[in-house]
Amino acid sequence: MTEIDLAGIAAAFGHELHAAGIPITPQRSARFAESVLLAQPRTIDEVYWLGRVTLIGDHTQVPTYDLVFDQVFRGFLDIVDTRPGPDTDDPGLRPTPEHSLDHSEQPRSDRPDDIASPITSSTPGAPQAQGDTDSDEASALAAASAIERLGDTDFAACSPEELALIRRLVEQLPLIPPKRQGRRSARHRAGRELDIRATLRRAHRTGGDPVARVRRRRIERPRRVVLLADVSGSMEPYARVYLHLLRGAVRALGAEAFVFATRLTRLTRPLSIGGPDRAYAMAAKATPDYSGGTRIGPAITRFLDEHGRRGMARGAVVVIVSDGWEIGEPGELGEAMARLHRLAHCIIWVNPRKAAEGFAPLTGGMAAALPHVDTFISGHSMRALEDVMDAISGAVHRRVG
Description:
The protein is an alpha/beta fold. 43% of the residues lie in helices and 11% in strands. A 6-stranded mixed sheet has the order 6-5-4-7-8-9, with helices on both faces. The chain has a 3-stranded antiparallel sheet with strand order 1-3-2, with no helix packed on it.
């Protein structure tokens, strides 16, 4: 009998929810897998409620969750059909009525999949022989622990199968753009600026006495994000993962994506077109120096000359993913970083080698760049990758001591 890949099921279900608009994180997928192991659900409806309490955090997400759950676990409809077009008003796309009931009010179903043994087969809810229960539960336990184990595993130490799972998890990471204050303001009860005109107009209702004061505050706008990833030979184990992060940032944040080894290549358009396979094929075709040497200084200088000074780097959050191993002159990298620091709002440097025991930024390139970096983090694992997401969404000027 085929053993269950619970980690794969949880990751795939989370991926479908994320694609449908629910911000699912790898931790929520891991909690869902753990809850299935602990609760040992015997019906599809029990799986539904385990997923509902572990995967979603807002009641407005319930209809979308219902539709995706029916497609994944019941096979009612395809997920593409759940995204209504401009002329779509099909009542058949609404969630099933049983999901709108409280758990204690749900009727007992006579369908065979609702009286199945604990869900431990490759097809959720399918019946199985009792003699295979112990072996399936053992394999399910191992699969469920995979996501948690990968949380702190260095990307360079992962097997191809684990990297495949990590790539799916990276696609689920919620990308929140950093904010900046816009030039315009809007009315807000907590604003600090008094709207004199609106206050005086409202004072006509109270005999000229400005009893109700109208306030305004600046509107927040998303700040531009620029990512430059090192794809040289020394960064190859990490470049595979960060290429997925670049694609997610381009599609979710409208970010600008570049890669460099011996030269700089802009990948914003290739990563934004079509599905993952086509995007990565176009990216690979556009990057002939993949796994080559490392010339960080000339790459950043070219970025500044061709893109940065024209406005792309001005006030942006710039994320550089590199181990800092420079084959050129460190002084050139230092000058380029100083120029970039004067333009950018915040520079985040992600160095996977930082997590190594006894690490010190003593290499020529890293030592020259670090004085101009605001945030210095490792990003070597899934858990560290979440720190990268937090640094981007909460980007402020922070100096490295």
